Amino acid sequence: MNEHANSTSADKSGVTTVVNVGLASCGIAAGAQKVYDTFKTALEGLAVELTFSGCMGMCYNEPLVEVRSLNGGRYIYGKVQPEQVARIVQEHIQGGTPIMDWVVYSDRIKTPDADFIDKQQRIILKHCGVVNPEDIDSYLSVGGYKAIEKALKSMTPEQVIEEISRSGLRGRGGAGFPTGTKWSFARKSPGREKYVICNADEGDPGAFMDRSVLESNPHSVLEGMLIAGYAMGAENGYIYIRAEYPLAIKRLKIAIAQALEKGYLGSHILDSNFSFNIMIREGAGAFVCGEETALIASVEGKRGMPRIRPPFPAQSGVWGKPTSINNVETFANVPWIILNGGDSFSRFGTENSKGTKVFALAGSIARGGLVEVPMGITINEIVYDVGGGLSSGRKLKAVQTGGPSGGCIPASLADTQVDYDSLKKIGAIMGSGGMLIMDDSTCMVDVAKFFLKFTKSESCGKCTFCRVGTKQMLKVLERITNGEGRDGDIELLEELGQKISAGALCGLGQTVPNPVLTTIKYFRHEYEAHIFDKACPAKKCKALISYQVLADACKGCGRCSRECPTGAITGEKKMPFTINQEMCARCGLCISVCKFNAITVTTGKERGK
Amino acid sequence: MSNPDSLKLSAENFDAIDQIVNKYNSDKGAAIMILQQVQATYGYIGQSMLERISQLTGTPTSELFSIVTFYSQFRLEPLGENFIQVCHGTACHLAGAERISEAVQHVTKAKPGHTSPDGKFTLEHVACLGCCSHGPIMTLNNETFARMTPDKVKKMLHQKVADKGFVNSEGCELSE
């Protein structure tokens, strides 16, 4: 992460300081655009270059601003508000003294948050948060498009595939199929017309790796696709991206236009015989389109329904032509592997899982954000060393990987290594990279219900096991969380789950039961508490909890009463208020407005006492 | 975006559809792209629009209808004056997205996936907006707001109703 994105241009104009504001969607959500605009005004007339980048990874510290000087090191400020800009300009940029209280990361001094960056192994994210994603020159200044140049000028397509195979790179979308093998299948398929598809339909709720990479360094993905096209003998590529990612789409369009202009896309790339074009297809909000045959149907403008394989896309994909579909992160790895060699890549990781993996660390974690770690690191290391432990000060309960297709790993197994095989062994999956940290205030039955609700509504309806099975499983889960669970429900869920896994047609259906099966496996007692004691130990399930005013703590300010949407809270000023349980909708608004922590939640035998 | 209430789908208003179809129809498999553009222009896809697209492209209306009902992005009813999305991704769910949705419904009277009776608000649940570290996330007219609470929702939407167009981001800035 040490390159200076625009240092060459900065040198020329005599500018010695660069201010770089992180403008990815999450930064913007935190207010980074206002910070950028404030800097723009504040830096007027000064010999300072103001630029922006995508995601620097430290989402928990957004908005992030980096100040780097040609000889003064780099300093990243966190949680920057527009009001702080004037002081940063005055003391740091003009005065030369960084404001250390606000600095969250620097190459000159170890900050309390330094481990978040230093414990990572950044290959894909190396230039994310460094380069300007809307400027191809910025990517070129850090060695961009050198890999496709090397491939075109000094390697045969077979050698490219060989290099990728030697690296041990496996698909980062979750299934982990060896990338080199996939490309060689597509290469060997007969026919002149072939396609490369980039799967950017990052539908797993809780995952944002692909969005961040596309918003921060879109050219690296384009370059990976180009190399894949050259290796397979394809001249056309599609990027299938979620419509929910407007900024990523905008930056991809800019990147494609710039690459065309500079001759890295189009015909006779770098004076070779290789031509390649990339088109964008926006998804329309269907989770199942992450499945490759459904994705192909959607690219063709149809309903995204999966079909039985074989034939595999490598034989018959989009428009019936050989097609290779790879994930965003997989493509982003490719230029590095071509430049540094497959052996360098395979030095990272474990025997069967090579390289690094990007995770979107979220939930109850102190330092949530985008992290890239070597395969084989343990979950504990990610949570505590990189993530800085839990944010809530509560205990770690479980870690969820793989989204709706994945599983919940209990805290007792958090020393498990993160690689394809170890995770599979304990019932979870690597998945695309969502990693959700849950503390002991999380209800595992509710989590299972949440995922089932999602997959039930996202089931395309084609095969019976998934269509009817998810509906039945959800019905049982709803019954349990409503306090109407019956003896035998847990066994029923297990039976349904096993049958859906065995009988469903596509990857979505086959993995749908995972969140339920793993939570039963590791948190069976919680299901039992819901069913037999009518208690929700985490106090989340509405039908099993009551809100009550703690008479001792209540000051009688009446705020809860005014805010209560159902008028369930009544009382006299300066006297403890009471909640009418019949009228209470358990929305929790009262807790969110009470300044005296005078409202409590009870469940099970304690309920109402 | 034009106000759907005042939108009469006269021959004149089909012009935009005609242009969109002309622009994309030469691409293979353009149906979804055409529908997306039509929705971006009109805010929703009405039956008469489907019929017009069908006339121009030769794709049966039934097939177009099967596409718009399959993908959750497509709306079959007009968009309200204000468009609210509440993220129901996993991280936002754990952070309390359900309560945010409820608060929005209490204030606006709009049901998820629908527009409020007064036409002022459309509420949509979305699977994940990818801002998982800042949940619960809500968007109002495509501006994203982080770490929402039911209280902030109330303030923000009441202000929206009162001020017509100005949202005070005070109530929704990042706060620990």
TrEMBL record, chain A:
Q: What InterPro entries does its record include? A: 4Fe4S_Fe-S-bd, 4Fe4S_Fe_S_CS, Nuo51_FMN-bd, Nuo51_FMN-bd_sf, Nuop51_4Fe4S-bd, Nuop51_4Fe4S-bd_sf, Thioredoxin-like_sf
Q: Give the GO molecular function terms.
A: 4 iron, 4 sulfur cluster binding; metal ion binding
Identify the residues that the record assigns to the 4Fe-4S ferredoxin-type domain, covering every copy: 545-574, 575-604
CDD domains xrefs = TRX_Fd_family
Give a single Pfam family match.
NADH_4Fe-4S
Q: Does the keyword Ribosomal protein apply?
A: no
Q: Which SUPFAM superfamilies match?
A: 4Fe-4S ferredoxins (SSF54862), Nqo1 FMN-binding domain-like (SSF142019), Nqo1 middle domain-like (SSF142984), Nqo1C-terminal domain-like (SSF140490), Thioredoxin-like (SSF52833)
User: What's the protein here called?
Assistant: NADH-quinone oxidoreductase subunit F
UniProtKB/TrEMBL annotation, chain B:
Q: Does the keyword Iron-sulfur apply?
A: yes
Keywords for this entry? 2Fe-2S, Iron, Iron-sulfur, Metal-binding
Which InterPro entries does UniProt cross-reference here? Answer: NADP_DH_HndA-like, NuoE-like, NuoE_dom, NuoE_N, Thioredoxin-like_sf
Segment forming the signal sequence: none
Q: How is the cofactor bound?
A: Binds 1 [2Fe-2S] cluster.
This protein's cofactor list reads: [2Fe-2S] cluster
Binding-site positions, [2Fe-2S] cluster: 87, 92, 128, 132
Give the family from UniProt. Answer: Belongs to the complex I 24 kDa subunit family.
Which PANTHER family does the record associate with it? BIFURCATING [FEFE] HYDROGENASE GAMMA SUBUNIT, NADH-QUINONE OXIDOREDUCTASE, E SUBUNIT
**Protein name, UniProt field:** NADH dehydrogenase subunit E
Q: Which organism is the protein's source?
A: Desulforamulus putei DSM 12395
Which lineage ranks, top first, belong to the organism behind this chain?
Bacteria, Bacillati, Bacillota, Clostridia, Eubacteriales
